[in-house]
Target: Transglutaminase-like superfamily protein
Amino acid sequence: MDFLLEYEDLSKYLLANKYVDFGNITIQNKAKELFTNDSNEIGKVKIAFEYVRDKISHSWDIQSERVTRTASEVLKYKEGICYAKSMLLAALLRFEGIPTGFCYQKLTLGDTPDTGYCIHALNAVFISSLNTWIRIDARGNTNGKNAQFFIDKEQLAFPIRPEYAEIDYPTIFANPIKITTETLENNTNCIEMIKYKLPTAL
Model:
């Protein structure tokens, strides 16, 4: 698909903020642990993606009530929903100087439209050596999901099903969008949040 950039200035996709808080020493230490000096750009993206995908649990998968709201909290507790996991992936890569943004999909909450809809978060990274953006989804490969990082094709956790009115939003945002951060800020029980309180459209 053709992406729309919120900002043409790539530096906007490198900034730290309240949610992508890579000024936190624990994130910096994790980045130094994950990335060796000889890791190239593509290698760093793959390492960070697979770490967040595989080593950070999705809260629903482990039926955790904890709501993590920043990248550093996700790293501390090793869990988060897609909104939070995408913050950690962005933080690790931005600390390494790799532009990373946020993308969204509208998906059915369950397998079919009668379950309702929710907004799902994933990331886009700019690969300077290829001069291109690539979307990646570190939600976690459970229950048959198979998200991968490839430079020649896109393989996300949730292929869009237009017949179910699912949507791939084309914009690459520099920061997590407000409706997602407010959802995390305003809830204290993650299971209830996922069941009943996720936003349903951008």
